[in-house]
Structures are given as structure tokens and as C-alpha cells.
Amino acid sequence: MIDDGYLETEDVNKFTKRAFMETAKSSPEVQQVIADSAKQGKRITRREVKQLSDEWVAMTSDLIPEELRAKAADQSIPPRYIAPLVKQMERLPEVHQDTIREAVAENPDLGTLKQVTAEARYLARYLEGANQVQALNDSNIDLELALEEALRLGVLNTAAELVNQSGILEGAIAKLYGSWRKMNQLSERLYVDTGASTPHLRGLLGRLDQLCGETVEITIGDPNGEGFSRTIRLTIEESGEMNSNQLDATEISISATTSVSTDINAGADTLVELEDEDLGEW
Fold first, then answer.
1. In sequence order, what are the beta bridge partners of 200?
2. Long-range contacts at 232-241 (CB < 8 A, ≥ 24 apart)
3. Number of H helices, E strands in the chain
4. Residue 240: what pLDDT?
5. Do residues 70 and 150 share a domain?
6. What are the pLDDT digits (tens) for 182-192?
7. Pair (14, 149) in one structural domain
8. What gap in Å lies between CA 1 and CA 7, rounded to an integer?
């Protein structure tokens, strides 16, 4: 920013570290506005950076109608509510941008703005997720018509989350398969490199067999089965020959069975926690 003439060397001291990092990520126009404030002797924090960025977006973005831009100009609608809508609309195809823009132009109020921002977020998640879900590839499902039906029934949030979780699940299966193959390779190498003189290493291998075989088994909850516990068994079947660079071309079949032992009082809270877990992280 100094080399480009936005700032003088002494102006850098007007910024907090986080504010400077946020400024560096901003567009050149926003950088100039923020730099001008710093040259005027103003202290630049992350809050100021966000405020100036939001104001710039609200006043210059072509994605919002003139009616909403006028509301931002007279501060009847704070720019901080408009910037998130623009961010979500940038993720959408033009046809959906036009629909949202028309809705906001018709009712340029804060309630409408919050509603369409949420819908734009769910819409973007749906469209982006649907393009990444392998189960939806090469299908005769019309995703746009399914989207229209979800909008008509007011279940877009649920549909978007379902598609999003589908992508997470497919990614988790791919990661599981990669780890499973790696474990088998390491286990086989360790077995070959050890013998009767290493009973403890052999014991380690034996205990880990439940994760290396065609059926992978784990227990969630109380391993003794006295409180809540759930045993999950995954059966992995491969079809086709592959090397380490051919994972995408290999068909993987994973089936799962669960057995549950539950003490209702001990397990209720655990069940809630499990349902709230992000499978991608788990």
C-alpha cells in the first residue's frame, strides 16, 4: 500500500494490526477511503475498516436497486445490513440476482432486507452444494425446479442444509476410505518388519485390526455399555483396481449398521450432542 501510494510510512502507525490486515484484503477503492482517513490522523481499527467497507459496498454495488441505495445514503437503513446481502448475491447466477433485486426494490425496508439476505444465503448454499454432490451427478433431477418447489413451500433452508450435509457426508466417506487404505498399508508394513521378539507391537497390531479389516467398528459413548453407547460397523467393499492416484475413479461401497445400548437418563444429553455434531469435523 505504501508502494502504491495509498499510505505514507508514518500512516501505518494509525492502524491496529488486525485493521491493517483487513484493509489489505479490501478492494483498491476501499483501501483508498481507509488510507484517506488514516492520513487525516484518525485511528483505524477493525471496526472502522468494516464500517467504511460496508458503506462503500452499499453506495456503489450494482447488485442492489436504487431504492435501497437511497435508503443507505440517508441512513434510514444502515449499510451494515446491506453489505451481507451484496456478499451473498455475488455468489448467485444473474437470474437469481434479478429476482432478489426486484423483491428489494418493491419493499426497500429492513425486514425485507433481512429476509432476502437469509434466502440468498440458503440459495447460494443450495446451488453450490448441488453442483458438488456426486449423488446428484448424471441424474434426471431438475435442480432448478426442485429449488422453485422449496421456495414455494418455504423449506429452502432445509433443502439447502440437506444438500450441504450430503456433500459433507461424501467428503467424509472419501476421507475415511483414504485413511482406511493408509492404515492397511502401514499395518502390513509393520507386520512384515516385526516378529515374535516384539509381542507388544504385535499386540498393538491385533487391537487395531478392527479398524483395518473390511468391517470397521467403533463405539461412541460409554465403552463399557453401562450408560449411553452406540456401536457403529462400516463394511467397505472396493470394486476396480487402483493406485494412490486413482481414488476418484474407484467405486467404493460402504454400508453401516449400528447397535445401541442406552440408559435413557445418561444418554439423552449425549444424543443431542451427537445430533448437533458437524460430520465434516467428526
1. none
2. 232/256, 232/257, 232/258, 233/257, 233/258, 233/259, 234/176, 236/177, 236/180
3. 11, 3
4. 65
5. yes
6. 999 999 999 88
7. yes
8. 6
Instruction: Fill in the amino acid letter for 27.
Output: S
Residue 179 has what pLDDT?
Answer: 93
* Residue 108 burial class via C-beta count within 10 angstroms: exposed 0-12, middle 13-18, buried 19 and up: buried
Domain that holds residue 85: 9-160
Report which of 45, 59, 28 is spatially closest to residue 37, judged by C-alpha positions: 45
Length, in residues, of the chain: 282
Does residue 257 sit in the same domain as residue 142?
no
Q: Is 86 left (phi over 0), alpha (psi -120 to 50) or beta?
A: alpha
Q: Are residues 141 and 228 in the same domain?
A: no
Q: pLDDT value at position 115?
A: 92
pLDDT, residue 225, reads: 63
Question: Do 254 and 125 have their domain in common?
Answer: no
pLDDT score of 104 more than 50: yes
The answer to whether position 244 is within a domain reads yes
Burial of 181 (0-12, 13-18, 19+ CB in 10 A): middle
Residue 184 lies in a domain: no
Instruction: Note whether 35 and 122 are same-domain residues.
Output: yes
Q: Both 143 and 236 in a single domain?
A: no
Residue where one domain finishes, among candidates 138, 160, 182: 160
191 found inside a domain:
no
pLDDT in tens, 79-99: 889 989 999 999 999 989 998
Quote the DSSP letter at residue 45: -
- What is d(CA 222, CA 24) in angstroms, rounded to the nearest whole number? 49
CB 238 within 8 A of CB 250: yes
